[in-house]
Amino acid sequence: MRLHVLMTTGTDIHPDYIAGTWKLDPYHSELSFSVKHLMISKVKGTFGTFDVTIVTAEDPRETTIEATVDVASVNTGVEPRDEHLRTSDFFLVEEHPTMTFTSTGFDGDVTGGEFTVTGNLSLRGVTQPVTLTGEFGGIMDDGQGNVKAGATVTGKINRHDFGVSWNNALEGGGVTLGDTVTITADLQVALQK
Hints:
It is built from one helix and eleven strands. The protein has one helix at residues 79-85, and strands spanning 20-24, 30-37, 41-47, 50-56, 64-70, 74-75, 98-109, 114-123, 126-141, 147-158, 177-191.
């Protein structure tokens, strides 16, 4: 997720671009997901504990992103459901306590501050390539001497690709859970001094 994008002139760099290491501001960030439930609505949840490090390079195309998620920190607002999500039916937390993302590429559409980032997502011991789309929010001094950047990224995965295949057939037809999971990260990161 390149938080800074190239200008439309091709080689020009966004005027606020700063090369350096950026760390997650957990107080102003959220990692959430949603999945179809009963074929009629969505169940949503968040992960309370996650970390992101972005290293912006002099050449923005060489920027790297590393993210780690404590999957035991899942929270859907219903504790029995969260406990079920931690079991072997879903996240298998006991054997695979973390989910990770490592970027492999970036493509920016600078006209609207939008971008696409590719990378490898690892969950339950399975690694699959994923593509995330994002929108750059900007860079700002927080008034306390810290330089912050913000972006929102989203992507969709098929949970079966990661061995998460639990489901329940419904009497009237259909199943309890959909296959596609939408992941959204609203991120604020701070430039390290």
